[in-house]
Amino acid sequence: MKLKHRIYKLIDISGLQLFDPVARLFFREEPQVQIKRITQFIVIPILAFGLFLLVWQIMAPRHTTKSGEVPKPGRVLDAAKGIWTFHNREKEKSIAFIASSDEANKILDNAKNRLEEIESSLIPAQDETIANLEILEQEWRDKNISPKIKKAANIEYEINSKQNSLKTELEELAGSIKANDKNAKEELVLRLEKLELQKSKWKIELAELKGTISILESKKYPLLERAQRKKDRLEEEKQYLSVYIGILTKNRNSKVEELNKKLVDYSNSFYAAESTKVMSSAKRLVRQKTRIEKTSESQYSAAKTLPYQTLRSLLCVFTGFIIATIFAIPLGILCGLNKTFMCAFTPFIAIFKPVSPIVWLPIGLIVVGGFIPDPENNALLSIINKLPIFSSFDVNPAFLASAITVALCSLWPTLVNTALGVSSIDVDHLNVARVLNLRFRERLISVIIPSALPLIFAGLRISIGVGWMVLIAAELLASSEGIGKFVWDMFNNGSSDSFAQMFVVVFLVGGIGLLLDRIMIVFQRLVSFDETAPSV
Amino acid sequence: MKKNIINKKYKFGLKILSAIALFIIADQPGFSQELDLEKEELKFGFIKLTDCAPIVIAKEKGFFEDEGLQVEVVAQPNWKTLLDNVINGDLDGAHMLSGQPIAATIGFGTKAHIITAFTMDLNGNGITVANSIWDQMKENDPELDKDKPKHPITADSLKPIVQEKLDEGEKLQMGMVFPVSTHNYELRYWLASAGIHPGMYTKTDIGGRTDAEVELSVTPPPMMPATLEAGNIQGYCVGEPWNQQAVAKNIGVPVTTNYDIWKNNPEKVFGVTKEWADENPNTHLAVIKALIRAGQWLDATKKKGIFRRGLDLVNRKEAARILSQPNYVGADYEVIKNSMTGFFYFQKSDKREMPDFNVFYRYYCTYPWYSDGIWFLTQMRRWGQITEAKPAEWYHKTAKEVYRPDIYLKAAKILLDEGKIDKSDIPWGTDGYKPATSEFIDGIPYNGKNPLSYLKSHKIGHKF
Description:
The structure holds two protein chains of two kinds. By secondary structure, chain A is an all-alpha fold. Chain A contains 18 helices and two strands. In chain A, about 80% of the residues lie in helices and about 0% in strands. In chain A, strands 1-2 form a two-stranded antiparallel ribbon. The longest helix of chain A has about 80 residues, at about 100-175. Chain A starts with a helix and ends in a 9-residue tail after the last helix. The mean pLDDT of chain A is about 85. Chain B folds into two domains: about 1-125 and about 265-300 and about 360-370 and about 405-435, D-Maltodextrin-Binding Protein, domain 2; about 125-260, Periplasmic binding protein-like II (D-Maltodextrin-Binding Protein, domain 2, 3-Layer(aba) Sandwich), CATH 3.40.190. In chain B, helix 13 (about 280-300) packs across helix 18 (about 405-415) and helix 14 (about 315-325) runs antiparallel to helix 15 (about 335-340). The interface between A and B is large, with 49 and 49 residues.
């Protein structure tokens, strides 16, 4: 087979048919057709996305709430960078904690210089910029905002004074009515009713005016806002650097060195000790040794950051997905093979399938809590935590409960599809198996499963999509360290960056969902007999 | 009965042990290096509120590390999950509401023996009402209709609004953060002091709405402003930065702070399970040491002992900067800075100095007072969370089961010997009861030694 065909095949199997026309164009195969396909499948989606960004950029600032503006794409990118910086800083701190003294000294100088630079030149410079911008801001406010506020305030004043004058007018009128003037009295009541009606209308109007005024007042001068954000970033870096330098000067190695020095003292005094003090100084010596051992293994407890949380979420979704598959496929095969079993099982599928993850999670927590009453010394948990990949992700009951929730929500598509796949096997195939006098096991392995595989994998593909969608909610509720917890934490922060961080998560979750889907497509294509398996 | 004896024996043993420990400490300077830690890697939980500061500062300023501890500090979604995680061992300890260890120990809600040897802060809460309610309050009391109305603002001007709603067949809805939170008791206290009934808890009504004129419901702190804006509640009582957030976003007006309701009231504590404390006595000591130092750092002034206003607190800006990191409180620095540096916006036009809005070290703040525990117990009884009348001894006994000044004093003694704190910082000779005080919004005096007569002195709620 020629290279070119190999490449085509690779593209086809890897689920990247998108690039098929590019490859074909590269080998000059029907260029016109390929260009048309490229426009259709690559250029148009890119243009559509560009259009989306444009609309977003224009629309975002128009939608302001009291909690803040909808962030523009640039702001979201900033937030993503912020998350990444935070991640890197935590990583740097962990590295600093375990660095050898030579390495520590080397980075220490850099860090100190940077801190010096920030403190003595960058922050003062930024302060100056801000001071200048504040003057400009005042001008901008006088020109653009204050007239509008004044206008609104004037209307407010007018309404209020109208209301007051009407009130006093009526009061005067009431004072002038004679006791027996029935008509005038009725007239007064009518006017009073009218005034009340008018008042309630004014009230709404006034509330609206107040709203506009407060929005106007909270409008910020974009340049000044940007400068202040820049200063905030510098202050944050300064804060980080001072902690970082603290860790570097007092890290694991220096602690161990200090402890070792003491150890020498202790052992000297132990060998010189009188018999009455031998035991106590021996104890001290031993204790010091264990302390050195413990210290030399200690790690900096860095904050959990989004990259870590994403990986843990992925692990969680796969754990749940595998649990779901282990149950769904055998049950599905049984359902497909046996009508009675299918009838018995249908109500369960019908009832449990639509149940939301939010309901499953507390149940999952109770189940897990029942099996693992004491997470610190639990055999199952410690076994799981020794497995190769799991060991670096601190599996706890919340993780297991989230995984079980994922399993409970995502097993249904696989189950139903497996049942469908098994029950729709070509009768001829089964007849052949019967003629060959195959036993059940052979029939299962060589006839039933292979012919049901394409549908099983179609089910699995839906399952993993559902699982990924469900996981975020589960993690959020269980506060299991993952993307869900990140979302909840950032939302709870209620800072001016919170909205933008939510948007970052949207793209992250979407991107990973897309990736998972693509992977499942590849599997699906690998097991399909026909070449027309779905590719979109 | 048997349990009691064991408890007494245990306590006696503990006293001897602590005496021995103190003797050894006194003998050996620099004992801190010798604390034989049972566990070095710890995980503490907190809720995103500025009063989690001692834990965060102890980590960021390296006070935990000085004790040889590596501590991970993890945000928790709500108070219930936080408590559950402490009980099931996922967390070693946590930032807790003062009422939580007590309620858990007596079995209101989840039952578990939680103890505390460290009070994290004083004051720090506010009561915020929606703009529309504030407008009506101003109509009811023209004195309030100023840029800077006179404080404290009582709920008297709220009463007609409540009555009007009741006449319409509705009840005013207000939010608080947890059934046993200080906020719940403070809000109830404020309402009841103006004759508004906030509702009773009964055996069957665990929502606490029986006979209520104003209905209180639980909302997690960070959700408060959004819930107020949505109109589901018309007011709330919560810690910072969620009152300042309401001002910043123009959705509500803080009418009073708990400093006015009860001057220098205890707010959060550091709680661990008794089991954990028994298994890790030295680690517990090390943690308390680090927390005391964090409190000291937070309340440090330029010149020792000189304190006039919030700006004298030299470390608060840095603290606000640290707290605004996304993994801690995460709100904007500007918002956190207000209350942390001793300022509070009641309205945009009404910025006031409140140097004691957050107290982390002064006024013997960090000491775990029995009398604080007893006040919470009286409130739990007053509102029916404790369903049966109890004798006075029960109050004292329960408070002593939860509040553990013995551990606190041991840690403080070590710090004193290391020269890290002043002798005058710690109330060494106290019996654990604060002097009687009547610095409440309604002036009713409280003496921790006499809980039953305190219960009797209130108009609304159980009297015995």
